[in-house]
Design goal:
Radius of gyration: 15 Å
Number of strands: 5
Oligomer: single chain
CATH class: Alpha Beta
CATH superfamily: Response regulator
Strand order of the largest sheet: 2-1-3-4-5
CATH topology: Rossmann fold
Shape: globular
């Protein structure tokens, strides 16, 4: 899957971070949606096809740990990259238990680590989509 066909959802309560990442990934050719918290993200996910969610952990209303748990329950193939400025063992364990692709620590020095994480997530997603198509082909035989 290339950036031309991938949709990212950026979830962060800081408008400046959402705007920075939206502009960055849009410039690279991705379709980018944004949400200010987990509740808004789930509303978008119910309406839009999203390939990769990039979410902050600490947010009001619904934080990133609850969001990733809901995503895993409702959208198991979706890739999730978590970000945090508040590193704790419990947050990292929740991300690990819920199969986050990675956790990026804030503040960012640059966006290279996130770029690489998105590329890896899309490769992973593409792999599982091919496996699902392969399974459908086997069932049709």
């Amino acid at each position: 899957m290339n950036s031309k066909s991938a949709t990212l959802l950026i979830v962060d309560d800081e408008e400046g971070i959402r705007d920075l990442m939206r502009r960055h990934f849009t410039f690279q050719g991705y379709s980018v949606l944004t949400a200010a918290d987990g509740e808004e993200a789930l509303m978008i996910l119910a309406e839009q096809k999203v390939d990769v969610v990039i979410s902050d952990i600490m947010m009001p209303n619904m934080d990133g740990t609850e969001l990733i748990q809901r995503i895993r329950a409702e959208y198991p193939i979706m890739r999730v990259i978590m970000m945090t400025g508040y590193v704790s063992m419990s947050n990292l364990l929740i991300c690990l238990q819920n199969q986050a692709d990675t956790v990026i620590f804030k503040p960012f020095k640059n966006l290279d680590e996130i770029d690489e994480a998105v590329k890896r997530a899309l490769v992973h997603l593409d792999h599982w989509k091919r496996k699902l198509l392969e399974l459908q082909g086997l069932k049709g035989v």
